[in-house]
Amino acid sequence: MKPSPYEPYNRLLSARPARGDVHVWCVSLGLPEDRFSRFEQALSPDERARADRFRFAVHRQHFVAARGVLRCLLGHYAEMPPAQIQFQEGAHGKPALVAPDRVRFNVSHSGGLGLYAIANEREVGIDIEKHRAMDDLNGIAKHYFAPDELAELGKLLPENQNTAFFRCWSRKEAFVKAVGMGLSLPLDSFSVSLDEEPTTSIARQPRRTAREDWMLFDVTPRAGYSAALVTEGMPAAIRCTRVEDAAKLAGELGL
């Protein structure tokens, strides 16, 4: 099974994921100045404190936008106002809703894009990485990649290695986030495919990830990025959408 092509977001607004389905939202995080305060006011005191710790204004804005959009989407699926969404953390820091627990989610943002996975009674992990020049690509890969991933990377032409690196990195991060084990799960303890169309299974999964049916999918939204989704078991459907105006989407969802 492959994720569906990216489709207009109004189609997902009128749909609810069936049990086990996954919706993937890609949202551009730029905000007009007159909407920033509304997003900020919807956040919890802890989220606002985290935003204040960013050194650069653009990073602070993207964080506020990303969290505001997350609250809007979760409020939509959980049928409650965005400001009333409450989070809790698992043993290793994976965020979850306090209620309703049927709605599962994960979020990532990079290079001005936020990527959100929303599921019904299915754990998910998602990661997006904007491609950028790497001064020590091979050194970083040797530290974090599994031996078979290093071998696969080394077979590529130098001009193709940067894209493959971020493809691999996003897939590994998505898996770690899906299983909810954080830094306790070393990135070199399992393997993913570096191919453009990935093998859906995760190789050499550590036994402590509890189950062996985690599935991997490529959900890259545009050129210059790599993005991956990992799901608990095989979903019946993965529907993806892109939103270029975060403020407009938030307004439609009650913010």
CATH superfamily of the largest domain: 4'-phosphopantetheinyl transferase domain
CATH architecture of the largest domain: Alpha-Beta Complex
The rounded Rg comes to 18 Å
The main pleated sheet reads as:
4 strands, mixed
Number of domains: 2
- Output the structural class: alpha+beta
Provide key terms for this protein.
single chain, alpha+beta, Ribosomal Protein L22, Chain A, 4-stranded mixed sheet, 3-stranded antiparallel sheet, 8 helices, 9 strands, 35% helix, globular
Can you give a write-up of this model?
The mean pLDDT is 91. The chain has helices spanning 9-13, 33-41, 45-52, 57-78, 137-144, 147-154, 158-179, 246-252; strands at residues 22-28, 87-89, 95-97, 103-110, 113-120, 124-130, 214-218, 225-232, 238-243. Helix 3 (45-52) packs antiparallel against helix 4. It contains eight helices and nine strands. The strands form three sheets. The chain has a four-stranded mixed β-sheet with strand order 4-5-1-9, covered by helices on one side. Strands 6-8-7 form a three-stranded antiparallel β-sheet, covered by helices on one side. The protein folds into two domains: 1-122 and 235-255, Alpha-Beta Complex (Ribosomal Protein L22, Chain A); 129-234, 4'-phosphopantetheinyl transferase domain (Ribosomal Protein L22, Chain A, Alpha-Beta Complex). The protein is α+β, with helices and mostly antiparallel strands. The protein is 35% helix and 22% strand.
